[in-house]
Amino acid sequence: MKKLVFILLVICLTGIACEKKEQSLKGTFWKLAGIMDVQTGILTELEPKDCEQCYTLIFIADDTLVTWSTTNSHRGIYNMDYKTNSFNIISLLGTLVGERGDGWKYVRSFCQVQSFSLKNKKKELKELWLYYDDEKKYLLFK
Question: Which are the contacts of 59, defined by CB distance < 8 A and separation ≥ 6?
Answer without folding.
Answer: 25, 26, 27, 28, 65
